[in-house]
# Entry
Amino acid sequence: MKTTTITCFGKSVSVFEFGNDTNPTLLFIHGNSAHAGFFIPLIRLLEPKYHIITLDLPGHRQSGAWKKEDFSRENFALLFNSVLDYFNISQVDAFGFSMGGLILLECFDLIPAIKKIAVVGHPPLRSVDDMPNAYVLTDDVSLYLQGSLTDDEAERVYNAVIQINDQQIKSEIKEALLETSPSFREGCLLMAQHVSDQVARLNQFSQPIAVIHAKDDVAIKLEYLKKLEINNLWGQKIQIISEGGHFIIYENPEELAAILDHFYSRI
# Structure
């Protein structure tokens, strides 16, 4: 792994590079209140065949926090374009996990280098009105977009969304929830309230799109995903991971890696 620091909006952003840069490049975008380190189990499986770039999003782990007003599709596009320019990358396939999927689908059309797109843990949206149909919006799930969290609230989020029965993983995820800048969750809430028509923009995109769903994801409604009409949906269906929930990058990286490799390696 190589670590690089770039600057965007006057804040440092930590960027991590894995694998041989002569291989096809993948851009990984992590979820809300996570960080790039959570991708390691998945990266280790894909690293032999791919050059992988990921980063701590603003307000996470090693990256400085933006103001909540800075969270927009244009600014995320600027961030990702800056990362790709730094590495002189003209073509990249992208993967977004959870809120990283929402961010990716908000700004992909502003990033010329992006080709294939895959998302897991995020349902492509047509407007904010889709959210009650796409997400399971309980009070505890909604805490995921609350600014500051108490330890009790982080526990409620974990039990409502993550539900992995492993105390070490639980400790790591709760730590990430508590250390993430409140401005990220507040900024993403603002962005979600003004979400663009992601489905329409995907339907104007010429490249394949993979929408992946973990069978036991309690936050996303599979019924909504199955009703989506996306012209270039890979395989003409939602890709279902047979075992695992919302935090699939930890629960079942093997099956997720196999799907991503099949998707990205097909011409």
Notes: The mean pLDDT is 96. The first helix runs from residue 40 to 46.
